[in-house]
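Entry: TonB-dependent receptor
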Amino acid sequence: MLSIRHQAAISAAALAICLTPSAGFAESAAAPAAPAEDEDTILVVTGRRVSDASVAIGTDQTSNTISITREALLSAPAGISGLKMLEGLPGFNVQANDALGLYEFGNSVFVRAFNFQQIGFVLDGVPMGRSDQFGGSPIFRYVENENLQRVTASQGAGDVSLPSYASLGPIVQYITTQPADDLGLIAQQTFGSDDFRRSFVRVDTGEHGGLSAYASYSKLDADVWRGPGTIDREHVEAKIRYEIDDRSDVTASFLYNDYFDYDSPAISIAQYKGTTPTPDPFGRKGRYFAYLGTVPNLSVTVPGIRYSNSLYNQYFKQAINSRTDYLYSLTGNFAPTDSFDFSVTGYYEDKKGYGVSPEAYSTSLGLPPRQGGAPSAYTAQKDIVPGLFAPKGLQYGLSTIEGSRVGVTAHGTYHFGPHILQAGFWGENDDYHRTQARYNHQDGNPDGAPLLGEPVHLQRDYRSSRETLQLFAKTVLAFDEERLKIELGFKSLNIDYKIRGYRNPADYINRRTPRLTDQWKDHFLPQAGLVYNVTPQEQIFASYAENMALPRGADDIFSAASPIVPGPAAETSKNYEAGVRTNRPTFNAALALFYTQFDNRLQSFASPVPGSTTTETFYQNVGGVKSYGAELSGVLKPRILDGAVYFNANATYNIAKFQDNYSTFAIKGKRVPDNAKWLVQAGMTVEPADWIVANVSARYLSSRYSNFVNSEKIGDYVIANAYVDIGDGLSFGPLKSVKLRFNVDNIFNKDYLGTISTTTNSPATYRPGPDRTFQISIRGEI
């Protein structure tokens, strides 16, 4: 049941919309009309898993824009995360710790010159902010593939109107379905590998006097594929829509997500191969290297302390993640005249969670400060911080988070002939609170109850806030009987940042709670693009965009050193694109060439603090990255196969290199870690009858470096997947649709290393890719 606080949030969002001046702001949902076409030119490739060209290859867009259709989303494995969905798109190097991409600390993305934290995500017009696991709003918590209409990605630069302070170019939009016109019930049950069980149900009210709604619920339970522990997820989505007339409507949405899992360890190549100088004491190696399912019997390393051996930190109950998120939004779309329309969205997000990690006895105890003891230990803090207890064995490391975001976006569009003038704004306040401390276990036992009344030492207790204001203006001009479309626009982005409290253990030692502030702003970030219809079937397009982003991990940056350390400049980018599209009866394709310049890259290293003689390790701007390459995607449906078989493929060539050295590290000209030169994907879909669709696909990723100096590299790999959908068009009694789906990921059980935790010049750690995974789903509709 919703708390009073959450009910009040909906009212606050609604009030914000009502109080927002709408006369000067609006959003256009429609681009200028497409050129007139004769009957021959409208014949395009079709199929149950083939989308309209405007979606598949981004027809009429000035940048390379590719989408995942609803049909493809429904054929994906049940419960797939919003991030894992992207791996089928050109240019997106997506790595995940598990087949569905649910484990937050095991996911990574690399596209062109950017990683996961430099991509903007938008859900039904609501910006998802930063993607940090601590305090952020990673998209995989907020979407359900059964409720998505499509996922649209711009690899180079999203539209200037889209709200984001995280994006240095790439933007991904998730658009959910509207309530159905008819009363209905959908239920789906899935079973799979690793004792996977997922139930999904959705109820639609149908449309009654302009009012329609739906609500859905899913529950997912599974074992961790690599080691002991479980994954548990509950997810609720609801939407109410009132259609005022055929041009205006109001929609309220609610989302709830509760997630809990046990971690699995990141490992080095030496651990993976079992070639460490000292063999793993528990005999672990390979892809199934995991935490321990029981507390081992280890030798005592400190007399009198039963659980003093540091290897007790390998027990799986010491590695836990839990998150609970609520998201409310209220959107109004209005068209008071034929030439003017506007849209306003208010939203509120509430989040909380915790994470657990172990700390060994000797680390918790520490040395006296005069002997060089770290401030993050009991011995250093016990005479300064009241209420501490001596460590008893293995310590329980608890991090807690809570926060809220509230914001409003508004867009308005004026149509004059074939042209468009558009303007809008986005304002948001993001408040965040984090704590971290080490506590005793009962008797120091790794399996003992955590004693939260016995803190051993304190790590942090701070609050931070981000206040954002983004303005934009844009015009779309059409010429030559609308064959040529030119877009010109710019945005202004202003971010105010504050952090106060105990940011790190040294703040406790020095009895200080500093209040630090910074601001990043750029009032002119231009974007320009054009698309030209060379023929009714072919287009050329080009675009240029500049972006600025909130420094990644700002809380970590401002917590890493003493208060005298200056804050960094914002990271910036310039993105160039040019390409061509074709849309023919038996194939469509898009080719984009790109060049990206990414500046003010952030890196932590030791150097003198400006204006002092003190040397500290802190984050600094150290130069740039340049990326260039090409992306090709398309669909082919040969006539010779009589429409029963079609093929899809995409290929990406991408080179991303550092442009500057920093400190004593010569990295200029080195490849950026996790940058794969080649990413190739291909699939074949077969429709032998109306009631069956089958697909097999393969994905190739070339070798990648794991550190900045390029001294360690992992090899390439190929992964194959398949699915079969049975039952399209079949009905039984009251069931208007019954479907059975089989999914298998990693058909050939390829053993490989996926996600990289990159380093500067040392061996990195990795997440082994998931093994072969099966799913079977049965779905019925009433």
